[in-house]
Amino acid sequence: MTGAASRLVGAAEKLLGAELPLQIRAWDGSQAGPEGAPVLVVRNRRALRRLLFKPGELGLGRAWVSGDLGLEGDLYTALGAISGLIWERDEAENGGVLSALRDPEVRAAIGELLKLAGPPLPPPRPPEEVRRPRHLHTRRSDKRAISHHYDVGNDFYELVLGPSMVYSCAYWSESSTLETAQRDKLELVCAKLGLQEGQRLLDVGCGWGSMALHAAREHGVRVVGVTLSEEQATYARKRVAEAGLTDRVEIRVQDYRDVSDGPYDAISSIGMAEHVGAESYLEYARDLYALLRPGGKLLNHQIGRRPREDESEYQLDGFIDAYVFPDGELAPVGTTVTQLERAGFEVRDVEALREHYALTLRRWVANLEADWDRAAGLAGAGRARVWRLYMAASALAFESNTIGVNQVLAVRTPDEGTSGLPLRPRTWHG
């Protein structure tokens, strides 16, 4: 009798209309597929039931997070091989799903997979998956979403991020380590904001306090850092106390919409604006504008996506929305600039750092893989699998220009029109 792996490969290739770029090892020990390719390990029939109930990336994600699917070989190679068949596949290419189902070979392939999967359908969702109404962006829903992503455990994030505890794109040179690249990113932000001793800085989405600490220690500013994560705030306050900077740095658990003690000389928002949401973005920009003194500067560091012909059809990646960033939304950089300008800002500089984020993510994945057993023990095996897949796939997305990351420097220019910037402001690049 033919092994399950050969039957799986045959059915998958009929459905995809292309040769499967991976080997498959099935639960019965059989293996099939192109030699030398990474091996997708289908550990049980439940993995098929997950894929049949939710075809595409969400079904794959559920099978991966639950451990029903595994991989032997390089994760980046495997993700790159299947990206064109799963994530980049245009449904209309073959006349859509209904047209495909009229094909006898496609129907036969689905029937074969149903036989292999067996009853019952569907399996329960992994506990790591978020189940809630989408894109509410109320104070309560935003706090829940932030808690889901960031309150995984500070020890887990220390393992992945390293001593810098910076969870955003680093700024690399050929001789950088992850630590020096993150320090250089923080200094780049400070230089763009032109921070000077005695000024007030608001750090929106302050994370574990790295930006607040760097700005206070290296530039003598007074910093208020706000986060919605209780775990982050506790960790950041401890770091501030240990650095002897409690007189200059205050860490609050507070929504940016509730900050009312302006004006500030500068605002940094690093990797936070992706959580704001399209419908709330103009409010976000106006709130930050109102918190700045005339002449004050905003440095908005934000992941962006490529624009689409029909923006109304855009939806966040299903896996990321369900497992990583609930309610997160990405916008093209042009949309971000427009919203900042509508709020009253004068946009003075935009810098793309796409390749820098790919390098950063690969280092984080390496940290996770190097201490996998401890990571799984700290956060749970399912959560560790979520982060490994999410970070590796994101690295490939940055490398392929599917998504990018941009630093936008904007000024609350006074009525008389004096921005306060030098004629050649890019002195931060040396």
From TrEMBL:
Q: Provide the alphabetized UniProt keywords.
A: Lipid metabolism, Methyltransferase, S-adenosyl-L-methionine, Transferase
Check the record and name the InterPro entries matching this protein. Answer: CFA/CMAS, CMAS, MeTfrase_dom, SAM-dependent_MTases_sf
A molecular function annotated in GO for this UniProt entry is: methyltransferase activity
Q: Please report which protein family the annotation says this sequence is part of.
A: Belongs to the CFA/CMAS family.
What is this protein called in UniProt? Cyclopropane-fatty-acyl-phospholipid synthase family protein
The residues covered by the Polyketide synthase-like methyltransferase domain are 156-414
Which residue ranges run through the membrane?
none
SMART domains cross-referenced by the UniProt entry? PKS_MT
- Class of this enzyme: transferase
Q: Where is this region: Disordered?
A: 117-138
**What Pfam family is a match for this entry?**
CMAS
Q: What Gene Ontology terms for biological process does this UniProt record contain?
A: lipid biosynthetic process; methylation
For this protein, what is the EC number? Answer: 2.1.1.-
Organism annotation: Amycolatopsis carbonis
Task: Note the SUPFAM superfamilies from the entry.
Answer: S-adenosyl-L-methionine-dependent methyltransferases (SSF53335)
